[in-house]
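This part of the workshop introduces the protein records we will be handling. A learned vocabulary of local backbone shapes supplies the integers on the structure line. Getting from the letters to the tokens is the skill we practise here. As an example, a complete record with its sequence and its structure tokens follows.
=====
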Amino acid sequence: MGMPLETFERLTLPEIRACLRAWGDQREAEARRDWETARTLGCMIIQPFVKGSVDPKRVLPLPWDSESPAATDHEETSRPEAMRRRRELMARMGLE
């Protein structure tokens, strides 16, 4: 994950879960970016040979094309709760 061992050892289970989820989300975003790049390049390559415009989603449909952008699998954290967690983390790391 790119985190120093001493920092990792100080994390609680919910924090570890959150870190793993964020790391997984980052890896998934990188994979999606690579597939989107490949799809765009493919469309650029075939465009001169096709009448009209090329729709990348029709040329190479990807699983996430049908996902709604508003769909989330996590609860929103209120600002006071986020600030409390931040203070707690800073105190635990000795930065306050």
